[in-house]
Design goal:
Largest sheet: 6 strands, mixed
Helix content: 40-55%
CATH architecture: 3-Layer(aba) Sandwich
Bound molecules: guanosine-5'-triphosphate, magnesium ion
Number of helices: 5
Strand order of the largest sheet: 2-3-1-4-5-6
Strand content: 15-25%
Number of strands: 6
Number of domains: 1
């Protein structure tokens, strides 16, 4: 049986220098960024995976963290199945920005039930005593938002693969639920049909009674 093709969009957002590009390129190209090259324009990468019934294509949008380009990012948020909020352990304000800027921006544009929120705290190779915020602050935020939390390091290759595997796991369970839902829909349509039939026989009975 030919498998159906499905495409899901993932968008990485967050302040400059948090490591959005590094995370994506670590997974897609296997490379660790040596220097800093600020992203210019939204870059799109693709990643494929299969389930027993579908070929799944992940379209990954790498955005610019700079305030000047927020309108470009804004237009890409729509139709995203996954929104990944990125902050980094070397910068306290990158976490603060998620709360004050990025999360409100998303809430303004898209319905919270239309995507899976993820929080990524990058640069977890930085020793705990040198980090600019505590893991407990992330736990609190992820719980509040019902978001999955990943602490990644592209430098030491920590949790980068796991993050992308999790997208596919969510997609597979979503697809499975949709298939199950469509089965339920078919079943309920069948039961509706039998209700309709009995109603029409009732109606004809009534008609006979009144006529
Ligand atoms: N220590 C450490 N540094 C990292 C890690 N990931 C990325 N970096 C460094 O952080 C800097 C910023 O990385 P980028 O991936 O370019 O950041 P960005 O979020 O894409 O930045 P913009 O495109 O400007 O929004 C670079 O110098 C990277 O080498 C990490 O896991 N650990
Ligand atoms: Mg970038």
């Amino acid at each position: 049986m030919k498998k159906a093709n499905v495409t899901y969009k993932v968008i990485f957002i967050g302040d400059v220098f948090t490591g959005k590009t590094s995370i994506i390129r670590k997974k897609i190209c296997g490379e660790t960024e040596k220097g800093y090259f600020c992203t210019v324009g939204n870059q799109i990468y693709t990643l494929e995976n299969e389930s027993s019934t579908h070929n799944i294509l992940l379209q990954i949008f790498d955005t610019m963290g700079s305030e000047d380009f927020m309108s470009l990012t804004q237009s890409e948020l729509r139709n995203s199945s996954f929104i990944v909020y990125v902050c980094s352990f070397d910068n306290k304000s990158s976490l603060y920005s998620l709360k004050s800027k990025w999360i409100p921006l998303v809430n303004e544009i898209v319905d919270s039930s239309s995507f899976y929120p993820y929080i990524v705290a990058n640069k977890c190779d930085i020793p705990e005593n040198e980090r600019c915020f505590l893991k407990s602050e992330l736990d609190e935020l992820s719980e509040e938002m019902n978001a999955k939390l990943f602490c990644t390091s592209t430098k030491e290759n920590i949790q980068v693969d796991k993050l992308f595997i999790e997208f596919f796991m969510d997609i597979k369970s979503h697809l499975f639920t949709s298939i199950e839902n469509s089965k339920v829909r078919i079943q309920s349509l069948e039961s509706l049909k039998s209700v309709d039939l009995s109603r029409s026989s009732d109606a004809s009975k009534n008609k006979g009674c009144c006529g």
